[in-house]
Amino acid sequence: MAGEALIEMRGVNKYFGQLHVLQDINLTVGRGEVVVIIGPSGGGKSTLCRAINRLEAIESGSITLAGKPLPEEGRALAQMRADVGMVFQTFNLFAHKTVLANVMLAPVKVRKKSKDEAARRARELLDRVGLASQADKYPAQLSGGQQQRVAIARALAMDPQALLFDEPTSALDPEMINEVLEVMQQLAREGMTMVVVTHEMGFARSAANRVVFMADGRIVEDRTPEAFFTAPESDRARGFLSKIL
Ligand code: ADP
Ligand code: MG
User: What is the complex's ipTM, to 2 decimals?
Assistant: First the structure.
């Protein structure tokens, strides 16, 4: 692990009615670490990400962020959510706001930054994701790959301690996947703590410190990418890899 534990899940269980969707999950993500979560559809990957951000409540176990339990509600919860940015498969940009306004919004509303300061920072971040020239456009005028890069800039605008990505390239046309993965690779190199649910095995191999294989609500393997891809230990992971590689 690179440095102290930033995200720590201990004995986490969650149910959707009868469905035991997270089963005794233990997962530690160190500061600066990139953890890729892979596994079959319905295995609980999205629910795990959402639990880290408390978009889903858990039934038992603990989740801590930099050693502190996740807040239950109110301002403390909003603050925590701002500290852990989330990037979804669907970009969820505000259609009636410009790209710049999308990136500025939360820093002004939640962080109480001045508009000038937020705009300056937003332009910096748009430049970083290769979209400086698109600042005054509306989301619908951008390609899917560009919209997803705006969503990443928007998450970064909150100066998060960690970023969660839930299949960030799954809704994109193939030719747009790389431009998004390149931005993510760059963030990884810069030391951003990242949890990434993805089927992009090239990204997992090159950017991940660890690969977590999840199936049926359980973490089945949690290993380095080299170990996982060259010699998966479980039948479940071997079967999964043989289908996607
Ligand atoms: P993955 O992201 O690995 O595909 P999910 O975390 O989305 O898996 O879902 C895990 C299981 O939980 C699936 O069987 C799914 O149908 C179920 N599930 C997800 N969200 C809900 C919900 N809000 N209510 C009931 N069941 C859900
Ligand atoms: Mg999912």
Answer: 0.98
d(CA 214, CA 25): 10
Local structure of 162: helix, strand or coil: strand
The token duo for 229 is 């891809």
pTM given for the model: 0.95
Contact 37, 212 (CB under 8 A): yes
| Sign for the pseudo-dihedral over CA of 127, 118, 99, 168 | positive
**Packed helices 99-109 and 144-156: angle between N→C axes, nearest 10 degrees:** 20
Residue 28, SS3 per DSSP:
strand
**Residue having the nearest C-alpha atom to atom 5 of ligand 1:** 44
Pocket test for ligand 1, best of 12, 13, 16 (most atoms within 8 A of CB): 16
Q: Convert the pLDDT of each residue in 150-200 to its tens digit.
A: 999 999 999 999 999 999 999 999 999 999 999 999 999 999 999 999 999
